[in-house]
Amino acid sequence: MNDTKEASTQGSLGGRRWLLFIHQLPPKPDYLRVKTRRRLRRIGAVAIKQTVYALARSDEALEDLEWLRQEIEAEGGSAVIVEGLLVEGLSDEELDAMLASERAMTAGEDPSAGSATVDRVEPGRTWVTRTGVHVDRIASAWLIRRFIDPKAGFKFVPARGYARKPSERRFDMYEAEYTHEGEDCTFQTLVRRFGLHDRALAAIGEIVHDIDCKDDRYHRPEAAGFAALVRGIVQAHEQDLARIERGGAVLDDLYAYFRKRRG
Questions:
Q1: Calpha distance 107→101 (Å, rounded)
Q2: What are the tens digits of pLDDT across the range 110-134?
Q3: Of residues 12 and 190, which shows the higher confidence score?
Q4: What angle do CA 245, 185, 243 make, to 5 degrees?
Q5: What is the spatial distance between Cα 164 and Cα 148, in angstroms, rounded to a whole number?
Q6: What is the pLDDT of residue 49?
Q7: What is the per-residue burial (b if ≥16 Cβ within 10 Å, else e) of 89-126?
Q8: How much is the pLDDT for 7?
Q9: Which of 180, 189, 176 is nearest to 214 (CA)?
Q10: CA-based nearest residue to 258, from 205, 219, 209
C-alpha cells in the first residue's frame, strides 16, 4: 500500500527541474556578502528566500554554482546545491517570471522588453584605443581578437580628439563604443555586450577589474601576480602593438588555466 502511494505521488510530480543554492556566510569579511549576491545575479539566479537562490537546471549553471560554492567555503562559509522539482508554494511559471524580472533589472531593462540584444561586428574591423596601453586595453584587445573579431586590427591614438571612421570601433577611451559602464571595466563591458558566457572570461574580467579600477571588488588572489606581469610587459615594450601581442600570450595561458580549473 505504501509503495503504491509513493509511486503514485512520484508520478504526479511533473514540471521542470531547478537548482537551489543554499548558503550561509561568515560575519567577516564584510565584502563576501555583497560579492556573493552580485555573483549569483550574474549567474542568473533569483532569491526565493533570504539565503536560497534558484535557477533553471543546466550543466553550465551547475558548474557556475559549484565554482561559487568553493569560493564561499574557502572564506569559511558553507553552501549546498540541490536539484529538484517545485511541489508547493511556488510554481514553475512564477519562478520563470521572477527570473525574467531579475534578468531585466540586472540588464537595466523593462521586464517586459524581452532579452537584451547581443552586439555583433563584421570581421576585420579596426579597433581604436588610447596610446600607452595597460591592463584593461591589453586584455580587451586579446578578448576582441580571440573571441569577437579574429581578423581585428588595432590603431592607437591620443586619448581625446580622434574622429573615428564609420567602420572603426573604439574601446577604453573617451566617447568609445565600448568602455567602462557602471561598475564594469572595459573588458567586462565587452564580455557582456557580446554575450560571451564563459566562466573563464568572467574570472579574467574580475582580475582585470581589480587591477584597473583599484577597488579590490572581487578580491581575486591572481590579481597581484597578473598586475606584476603587465607592469613587466609595459616596461619591456614601448610599442603598444608589442604590448598587446605579449600580453595576449600570457592571457592565452591564463584562460587555459581557468578553463581547466574547477573553482
A1: 10
A2: 433 444 578 999 999 999 999 999 9
A3: 190
A4: 15
A5: 20
A6: 85
A7: eeeeeebeebbeebbbeeeeeeeeeeeeeeeeeeeebe
A8: 40
A9: 180
A10: 205
Spatial separation of the C-alpha atoms in residues 76 and 14, rounded to whole Å: 37
Strand 153-157 to 126-130 pairing: parallel
More confident residue, 103 or 260: 260
Answer for the pair 143, 244: CB distance below 8 angstroms, yes or no: no
Tell me, what's the pLDDT at 106? Answer: 56
pLDDT of residue 98: 81
Contact 199, 181 (CB under 8 A): no
Cα–Cα distance for residue pair 139/211, rounded to 1 Å: 11
Q: Considering the chain, what is the average pLDDT of its residues?
A: 86
Domains of the chain and any CATH numbers: 15-107 (3.30.70.240), 126-260 (no CATH)
pTM of the model: 0.59
Cβ-defined contacts of 212-220 (< 8 Å, 24+): 212/134, 212/135, 212/136, 212/185, 212/186, 212/187, 213/180, 213/183, 213/185, 217/31, 217/35, 217/183, 218/35, 219/29, 219/31, 219/35
Q: Nearest-CA neighbor of 255 among 216, 208, 194, 217?
A: 208
pLDDT at residue 11 is higher than 60 = no
